[in-house]
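Long-time lurker. I teach an intro course on protein structure, and each term I like to show students one example going from raw sequence to a predicted 3D structure in C-alpha cell notation. This year I'd like something fresh instead of my usual example. Would anyone be willing to generate the C-alpha cells for the chain below so I can use it in lecture? Attribution to the forum is fine with me.
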Amino acid sequence: MRILVIGGTRFVGRAIVEAATARGHTVTLLHRGTAGSDVLPYAEHLHTDRNEDLSSLSSRSFDVTVDVCAYVPRQVETLAAALGGRGGHHVFISTVSVYDDAKVDGPGLTEDGPLAELADTTTEQVTGETYGGLKVLCERAARSAYGDDRLTVVRPTYVIGPHDPTGRFTWWVRRVAAGGEVLAPAPADAPIQAVDARDQGDWVVRLAEQQTAGTFNSIGTPLPFGFGDLLGATVAAVGPPGTTLTWVDGGWLVEQGENGQSLPLWPEGGTEWTLAADPSRALATGLTPRPIGDTVRDTLDWIRAEDPPMVDGWGITAEREADLLAAWQRRGDPGGR
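-- Reply from a regular --
Happy to contribute to a lecture. Here you go:
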C-alpha cells in the first residue's frame, strides 16, 4: 500500500511508520522541517507546514492516510480538501481525552461514552481545558469529510515506550532504575492505562490494511489496572535490589504543592474514570499488547543508549523527594493506601 502519514517523525507517528515499512508498505511523510529524515530514511519526506501549504499533495494519491497531528478541525478540513478524495482510507489518531470525565462514574467506559463539548467551538487555542473538546470536533470533521465507511478513529490513552518525548512515563523509569526508597503518590488503585507505541503502531497499520472502519479505545493494560500496578511493574522490571515504594497520601501531597506534573501520570489524589476504559473493541480487531515489564525494560534500554535529555517541568528532584518522604514519615502514618 501507499500510505501517507501526516506528522509521523516522532514517537506515535514514528511507531506507525516503522510498522508500515516493516510490513512492506511505501510510506510518505508530510511534516515540518527536516526532523525524521535521519531516523526514517526509508520513507519519502515532504517538508511543509500543514497549516500553510498542502500543494505538494495536489497530484498525489494514496491508499491510506494516517493523520497523527491534527488538533483543530480546520486542519482536518484543509487536509481533506487538499487530497480531494485521493487519500484512500483515513485513520485519525485522536485521544481518550475526548470523553467527558465529569459524566463517567465508573470503570468500563466504551467508545460510545459521553464526549467533551466546548462552549466556544470556534476556538483554536489548545489548552488542557480545550484539548479534548477540540479533538471531538476533529473527529466530527473527519467523519463529515470521509464518511463512516472510510474512517478509522483511534483513541489512545497514555502512550509509552522507547522514543517517548513527553517526560512522563520516562521519569518514573529513570527514577525507579536509580533505586532506593521511591515516593509513590496514593491512591495505589487510582486507574491508569497505557499502550506501547509499538503495539499501537502495528495495530494501526493492520487496521489500515483491512480498512477497518470504526472508533477504538487504544489501551494496552487490562481492567482493573491502577497506579500501584504500573509502579509495581516498573520496580519489578528495572528496580535494583532493595528498591521500595513508599505510598504517600495524595491529599497530603497536594497540600505540599505537588501535582500530576511534579509526580507524572498521577491524578492528584482523585479518580479519572476515563483512565479505566474498555479496550475490548481494540483487542478484538488485533491490538496485541506486550507485557508492561517489557515496555519498561525497553524504555530504559533506549534511555541508556541514546541518553535523551530530561524534559523540563516534569518530575521532582531527589532532594525534594527526600524532604517529602522525611516529612511524611515524621507524621507516623504508614502510608496513603
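Some talking points for your students: The chain has a mean pLDDT of 95. The two ends are 51 Å apart (CA to CA).
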